[in-house]
């Protein structure tokens, strides 16, 4: 039996999405920048996709700029804002639990004369708007706080955080890669200036992302060359991928309520069964304001990597953290920031359910997980000892 429980890492591409993409690899192969028939036909596909993605976040299609992924969108905002606003100031504010696409770009900017303030979070991973207000200075040019954390699933109070930045006339960016398709997103209500997205987290293809740039906001171009994406992002567009993103966005909008209900129901049942069958477990992150499919669980006395490998041997796919950094043996910066001990960090596993997860999948996983944890604890030389 195969059970996939890592929907925060990536999602399978839905059949409807693949079906819509296929013609753009064959008969609709034109370059969208060309002015003759095949090119204009391809451009129609781009325009429809742009509208569908815009509709999902209540934006204008002209505010949507396609990229190769969410990471590129994050890099573009930070480097673009730093470049276009460097005469105003060289200070950026972010949080300690951002995705590495943000943190590593901030580190890059620090090497180039910028100062970055990394905000602390509370035990559930929340950024306090009052803490943000105190961190903003006269030379602050950008605040970047993610909507939903990719490891612990905590949903930030983005509307309040963006308002705190606006009070001081500072631009606000949110990485909404984990939020898209998992909660309602309205850029106007949120009050954000920039928002990053990725297709492969919403049952679309890999290699496609987008950046929302609020109308009237200046942002330097990230790639130079042709006039694609309204002269903001050069390079021939990945037409088929973008068309797939558009279809995935349309499906996400249509199915949002049922998707959330399905995911939350299975997630809550899963946690209930874990608590019932396994002792020495801890749920990390907020219980109430949480990604509908996310469970980040620490298991006492054992290594998360060992759990992952044994589950994998039984056909169950899970993660020990962010898929983008799980090959690193360094402790999770997110769990560290919320005050989890190093031993609990090492015993942490992330499970995320999605549209194709069933109750049978959860029952099978709980059965295997219970046996796995029992076996690993029997082998552990430190079970119940001081320091754990």
Structure description:
The protein is of the alpha/beta class and 388 residues long. It folds into two domains: 3-10 and 256-379, Alpha-Beta Complex (Aspartate Aminotransferase, domain 1), CATH 3.90.1150.10; 15-254, Type I PLP-dependent aspartate aminotransferase-like (Major domain) (Aspartate Aminotransferase, domain 2, 3-Layer(aba) Sandwich), CATH 3.40.640.10. Helix content is 41%, strand content 13%. It contains 14 helices and twelve strands. It has helices at 15-21, 37-57, 70-84, 100-110, 129-135, 158-167, 187-190, 228-231, 239-254, 256-277, 304-313, 333-337, 342-346, 359-379, and strands at residues 3-4, 64-67, 91-95, 115-119, 140-144, 171-175, 194-198, 209-213, 281-283, 294-299, 316-317, 348-352. Strands 2-8-7-6-5-3-4 form a seven-stranded mixed beta sheet, sandwiched between helices. Strands 9-10-12 form a three-stranded antiparallel beta sheet. Helix 6 (158-167) links the parallel strand 5 and strand 6. The two termini are 34 Å apart. The mean pLDDT is 95. Belongs to the class-V pyridoxal-phosphate-dependent aminotransferase family. NifS/IscS subfamily. Residues 3-364 form the Aminotransferase class V domain. GO terms for molecular function: cysteine desulfurase activity; iron-sulfur cluster binding; metal ion binding; pyridoxal phosphate binding.
